[in-house]
Amino acid sequence: MKVIIMGCGRVGSTLATSLDQAGHKVTIIDSNADSFQRLDSTFKGEKVQGSGIDEETLKVAGIETADAFAAVTNGDNRNIMASQIAKEIFHVKKVVCRIYDPIREATYRESGLETICPTLVGALMIFDALSGKK
Amino acid sequence: MKVIIMGCGRVGSTLATSLDQAGHKVTIIDSNADSFQRLDSTFKGEKVQGSGIDEETLKVAGIETADAFAAVTNGDNRNIMASQIAKEIFHVKKVVCRIYDPIREATYRESGLETICPTLVGALMIFDALSGKK
Fold first, then answer.
1. Rounded to the nearest 10 degrees, what angle do helices A76-84 and A102-110 cross at?
2. pTM of the predicted protein model
3. Cα nearest neighbour of A19 on chain B
4. Any A CB within 8 A of B89 CB
5. CB A32 within 8 A of CB A51
6. Residues of B with CB below 8 A from A114's CB?
């Protein structure tokens, strides 16, 4: 599977390394080249410096032939915009978008975007741990 | 159950509201009083302005009789320190600490702290979603 990941923060770099180790062809995009230092030294994928909401950058990253796209920068709006571009303009089959804000997450999930909200997941995990369910 | 939550960000406020609605006695601590605006309007718990790594603030929040403590500020070090104070000095039975950095998370988990790492959980969820396991 050819996967493009936008955002090389902690989650993006962990995800990129895992997918790379699982044998997928990974390209990671970040506007700050220093972020690529977070990648594992074994990472064999491509690194593209630029903005994931810029169509040219996405083309350089190979979006036109990508099977999957994940938007995991720290900015909800950037993640939403990039996911919509990947899905609507480039017709990437599998698009996953991280949205911190539970309200925006619900809105965009209902509109058909596949979303992950770490805020709700984190709160639920801690709720379960405190309640002794973990 | 009497629960103290340190940090009224998105996760802290969501957690506080959920625990309050589940009938628990919740006290939430934040150094910035504006953060309490994130709480649901129905929230019936206590709000304490101050630092969760300050023992006096923790006493004001009722740590000496608390059953559980969750550290969910945006600072890993603050969360680790506050959790250790709650556990070692005040002998709170259930202490849960959020740590973003997977390396520190592993270290403190191995040393006996109950930790939650949203970075790893988030990466795993997106990995599963991209791999079609979701």
1. 10
2. 0.84
3. B127
4. no
5. no
6. 129
Q: What ranges make up the beta strands (E) of A7-127?
A: 25-30, 46-49, 68-71, 94-98, 114-116
For B53, the 3-state DSSP assignment is coil
Residue A11: closest CA among A65, A54, A70, A93: A70
Which of B14, B15, B123 is opposite residue A18, by nearest beta carbon?
B123
Q: What average pLDDT does the structure give for chain B?
A: 94
| CA closest to B129 among chain A residues | A96
Q: Is B33 on the interface with A (CB under 8 A)?
A: no
- Comparison of pLDDT for A132 and B7, the residue scoring more: B7
Q: Which residue's structure tokens are 């009083």?
A: B33
Share of chain A above pLDDT 70, in %: 99
User: Does residue A120 belong to the interface with chain B, where contact is any CB pair within 8 Å?
Assistant: yes
B102 burial level (CB within 10 Å; 0-12, 13-18, 19+): middle
Distance from CA of B54 to the nearest CA of A (A): 22
pLDDT average, residue stretch A41-69: 96
CB contact burial B46-55 (16+ within 10 A = b; e otherwise): ebbbbbbbee
Q: Do A121 and B119 touch (CB under 8 A)?
A: no
Of residues B46, B97, B92, the one with CA closest to residue B67: B92
> At A119, is the pLDDT very low, low, confident or very high (cuts 50, 70, 90)?
confident
What average pLDDT is seen over chain A? 94
Contact between chains at B126 and A72 (C-beta distance less than 8 A): yes
Joined together, the tokens standing for residue A29 give: 């995009």
Does residue A133 register a pLDDT over 70? no
